[in-house]
Amino acid sequence: MFRAVPHRRQRVRLIRFWDLLSRFDQVCMALVVGAEQSGSEVIAATVTLATGDVDRQSHTASIARGLEPNICFGLGSGVMTTNPEAFRYDGKRVLVVGGATGMGAAAARLTMALGAEAIVMDHAPIDFDVAGAIKVDLQDRSSIDSALDEIGGPIDAVFSAAGIADGPPLMRVNFIGHRHVIDRLLAQGQLKSGAAICFISSVAGIGWEADLERLIEFLGTADYEAANAWVEAHPDTNNYMFAKQAINTYVSRQALPLRKQGIRINAVCPGPTDTPLAQANADLWLTFAQEYRAEVGLDYHSPEQIAQAMAFLNSAAASGISGINLLVDSGHVMASLSGAWPADKPILDLLMGRS
Prior knowledge:
By secondary structure, the chain is an alpha/beta fold. It folds into 2 domains: about 10-80, no CATH class; about 90-330, NAD(P)-binding Rossmann-like Domain (Rossmann fold, 3-Layer(aba) Sandwich), CATH 3.40.50. The chain has 13 helices and 12 strands. The strands form 3 sheets. Strands 8-7-6-9-10-11-12 form a 7-stranded parallel β-sheet, sandwiched between helices. A 3-stranded mixed β-sheet has the order 1-3-2, with no helix packed on it. A two-stranded antiparallel ribbon has the order 4-5. Strand 6 (about 95), helix 2 and strand 7 form a beta-alpha-beta unit. The chain starts with 11 loop residues before the first strand and ends with a helix.
């Protein structure tokens, strides 16, 4: 079996693995990464093993320079190992917007447990220890700008978690303010290559493609004030569903330009989750998919379950993932849309904009 070692940015030299590779006499196709350390050097090779016996002439080991955290497949034993440090946040600064309670608070606590320095912004008091607690009102651009001025230095991961259920400032709090935070961080050079962003969207936002033309028009607004003016001119869009569809569309469309800067962006779309906001709207939010949960023997999701998905998406372990709106709903949406759970197919078809 090959052994994966931690990534080191040091000179790499050629090594041949013929004797080791000749142990694999089974028919297989795999990428094999072998690495070992010798003094201050990392000696590494990558070999593609095709079929049958190893051809000593054609399978020449190749050089890897600036290795990413190594992945290694033990073909004989079926064991795969990877660098677990990629899931951690040691030495990273994270910004959680809306982290006083619920899923945002769970994300802040989890990333701190994984080694992060967490800065939390919220309108509500933050009652747990964080590296920085900053008061912010997302319905007021000047409040956002003042809060951002307090951060100082780069941010490695943004968790956009704040949200409200209804009211005149809904779009400002649930989307426009979050977009302004990201725009400001980018403009100030505080989000650099390697950074990641994760929004909390919702199952309510899954049908965004059916209203894509209008959503693109909204997202084409230049700034906070222009976006707010657009919503005021289209009052039917100042609602929870449109806000979540805006998030999903934004994530999908920003994946390309942000990736060119080395930055990733994703969202989670939770099913019913036991948070203070959900409890305040329990009759509508927590009864959704109730029969499905009873069928599979599950309760509501916990904030920690959603935080774990967010922490993964914003970690180096998800370095190849960007532009996705990840359902975290124990399979309810896909089971319904596919007809495996027919009871909720009509309402899911409606959310998707299908006739």
